[in-house]
Design a protein that fits this description.
By secondary structure, this protein is mainly α. Helices cover 58% and strands 6% of the residues.
């Protein structure tokens, strides 16, 4: 009733104060909070870089990307469309295993082959938007390239939604396509290297069309048929007649045989150098022997 705490209450209060951790200062709490926020920001930046494979701002390209997770692909398309998305708390969808597990097959069905032939004209190399030196700004060109790549990805997504069409892995890094655009614009001869065992399977017909669109009279394409050592003379002749009928410039080549030729040439050069060294050594010995013989004759005389 007096308002004075009893001895028991005082002991309990002292015990609580003793076990309580010392409070951080306002500055300490602020620095800790700032550090955590900075680490979260850096981690998000690393994830964005990995997902978007760098924007076109002069940074080094990491390399080719032919497969992405669903989240990376979503963020990639958001970047190309220049849109931002926010997640909604509680809006979750549960997928069963059968929703995303497809049976593994090695061959296409008849329906898939038919759909591939019908949609082959849509499987195109993305085109660089038109631009003019001195008239198109860098920012406008980058924005136009993003829109072009986004529309190209949308067309491929529409093809993937077709239940009878299966797309093989394709290049998803926009920087790789930008590099291709620059190379095609600056090159006079574009070489496609294909496997001699099935040249048409590896030849990109739309790349040939794209080069022709850029400069039909000044740019050329060459079909380099590699691993030609796998072909018989009759097979080479048959392919040569087919390429001539299509009016394609082509050349047969074997990297394996060329490597063997270079190694043989290097060995022959080494043998010639060794033989020349031995001859020079023998000539020195002959000259030395002649000098010694003349000296002895002079002593006798």
């Amino acid at each position: 009733g007096t308002g004075v705490p009893s001895s028991v209450d005082a002991a309990v209060a002292m015990g609580r104060n003793k076990n309580r951790a010392p409070k951080k200062s306002v500055l300490g709490r602020s620095l800790t909070k700032q550090g955590k926020a900075q680490r979260r920001h850096e981690a998000a930046a690393r994830r964005a870089d990995a997902a978007l494979m760098h924007a076109a701002d002069g940074r080094v390209v990491k390399g080719s990307v032919t497969a992405q997770s669903d989240l990376d692909e979503f963020m990639h398309e958001a970047m190309l469309a220049e849109k931002e998305f926010e997640s909604t708390r509680g809006a979750a969808v549960v997928l069963t295993k059968s929703a995303f597990t497809a049976p593994a097959r090695l061959e296409l069905s008849a329906a898939e082959r038919e759909q591939r032939l019908l949609n082959e004209h849509q499987l195109r190399v993305p085109r660089r938007p038109p631009w003019r030196r001195g008239a198109t700004t860098h920012a406008d060109l980058i924005a136009a390239e993003k829109r072009a790549l986004y529309e190209w990805r949308k067309s491929l997504a529409a093809l993937e939604d077709n239940e009878h069409l299966v797309l093989t892995p394709f290049e998803r890094n926009p920087e790789m396509w930008r590099e291709l655009w620059r190379v095609l614009e600056r090159s006079e001869l574009v070489v496609q290297i294909v496997d001699a065992r099935n040249p048409l399977q590896f030849r990109c017909a739309d790349l040939h069309r794209y080069v022709t669109e850029l400069a039909p009279f000044t740019k050329r394409t060459l079909l380099l048929v590699n691993k030609a050592d796998y072909l018989t003379d009759a097979q080479r002749l048959a392919w040569a007649r087919y390429f001539d009928a299509q009016a394609w410039d082509f050349a047969f080549f074997s990297a394996k045989l060329e490597l063997e030729r270079q190694e043989a040439a290097a060995d022959a050069e080494q043998q010639r150098a060794l033989a020349a060294a031995l001859l020079a050594r023998a000539a020195r010995r002959v000259r030395l022997g002649a000098q010694q013989l003349r000296g002895r004759l002079a002593e006798v005389v």
